[in-house]
Amino acid sequence: MSLVDQMLGEGAVADLCVWKNKVISGITFVIATRIWYQFEILETPLVPFLCSIFLLLMLLLFLWAKFGQLLGTWRPPTPEEIKQEDSLVRALFSKIEGLLLMLYEIAYGKDIKTFICVNLCYH
C-alpha cells in the first residue's frame, strides 16, 4: 500500500482523489473546472446564477408535471397527495419539518445546553 493510500484511507473520496475510477474522477475534474471558470474568469455573480438555476428547475418541474404522462414517467406529487397522512412524501416532509423545528429551537435558545455546545464547538 502506498503512502497516498495510507493517508487518504479507503472509500469513495479516496478513490476519487487517486483516480481509481478515471471516468468519475474526470467528470468531477471537468465540473470543478467549469465552476471555477464560471465564477472566476467570467465573474458571474452567485445569487443571480442560483436564481437562474432555480428557475430552470421550476421549468423542468412544470414540464414534468404537464407532460410526464406522455413520456411514461411518474408525475411529481400534488399538494393533495402530500397532505395525505399515509403518504411517503408527507412522512419525508414531516421529518424535515421536525429537523427544522429542532434547529429553530436551538437557534433561539429554547435548548440552551445544545445552543452553548454548538457555539463553543463552532468557535
From TrEMBL:
| Taxonomic source organism | Eruca vesicaria subsp. sativa (Garden rocket)
Any Pfam family the entry gives: Reticulon
Task: Tell me where in this chain the Reticulon domain is found.
Answer: 13-123
Keyword annotations: Endoplasmic reticulum, Membrane, Transmembrane, Transmembrane helix
* Name of the protein in its database record: Reticulon-like protein
What lineage is this protein's organism placed in?
A: Eukaryota, Viridiplantae, Streptophyta, Embryophyta, Tracheophyta
Its localization reads: Endoplasmic reticulum membrane
Primary localization: endoplasmic reticulum
Listed GO cellular component terms? endoplasmic reticulum membrane
